[in-house]
Amino acid sequence: MTSARDEKGRDTVFDHLPAHMPRVISVGRLDLNTEGLLLLTNDGGHVRQDQLDALKHGVTVDGVRYGPIDAKLEPGKGSSNCWMVFSITEGKNREVRRVLESLGLRVNRLIRLSYGPFDLGALPAGEVVEVPQKVMRERIPGYFKKGKV
Questions:
Q1: Nearest Cα residue to 96 out of 44, 133, 61
Q2: What is d(CA 87, CA 67) in angstroms, rounded to the nearest whole number?
Q3: What are the pLDDT digits (tens) for 116-147?
Q4: In 3D, which of 55, 51, 75, 50 has the Cα closest to residue 67?
Q5: Given 31, 50, 70, 119, which residue is catalytic?
Q6: Contact status, residue 47 vs residue 73, Cβ threshold 8 Å
């Protein structure tokens, strides 16, 4: 397994690295039934705000065109990880991850803070809130069409 952790408790490639080796990440992945060359690096990649600014015009990655992306680099605290805030309009499959991979970056954690007119706010992890029909009507004009609900 190329994952850092496996939810089923299986060994990963990282479990078998020498103890003296620094923290590394994989360059690419091998699935469970694949073997062969796997590159590891301790250079996680760095991004500059000007690279993120270029995404405002959209970008094509592996033949897929992604629309404009507003991306801001959050001030760092000197760690190897950084936080970014993205605003996307399309939400294509794995869009944020694929666009960042094209810049040589790997997403460790992705948190959706809002979706259309809805915000996560201070909702605790694991909590569920039902959205009343009145709120749906107010926030999404045309959501309830005659005979639909």
A1: 61
A2: 11
A3: 888 888 888 888 888 888 888 888 887 666 55
A4: 55
A5: 31
A6: yes
Could you confirm whether 53 is annotated as catalytic?
Answer: no
Angle at 88 between CA 118 and CA 58, to 5 degrees: 165
**One-letter identity of residue 48:** R
| Alpha carbon distance 80, 21 (integer Å) | 16
If you average pLDDT over residues 51-69, what whole number do you get? 93
Contact between 101 and 64 under an 8 Å Cβ cutoff? The reply is no
* Confidence band, pLDDT 50/70/90 cuts, at residue 44: low
pLDDT at 58 (0 to 100): 93
Spatial neighbors of 121 by CB under 8 A, at least 6 apart, are: none
Structure tokens at 116: 């259309």
Report residue 26: phi and psi, to 5°.
Answer: -85, 150
Query: What domains can be seen in the chain, in order of their start residue?
Result: 1-43 (no CATH), 46-149 (3.30.70.1560)
State pTM to two decimals: 0.60
In whole angstroms, what is the distance from residue 141 CA to residue 139 CA? 6
CA dihedral 4, 7, 11, 15 (to 10 degrees): 30
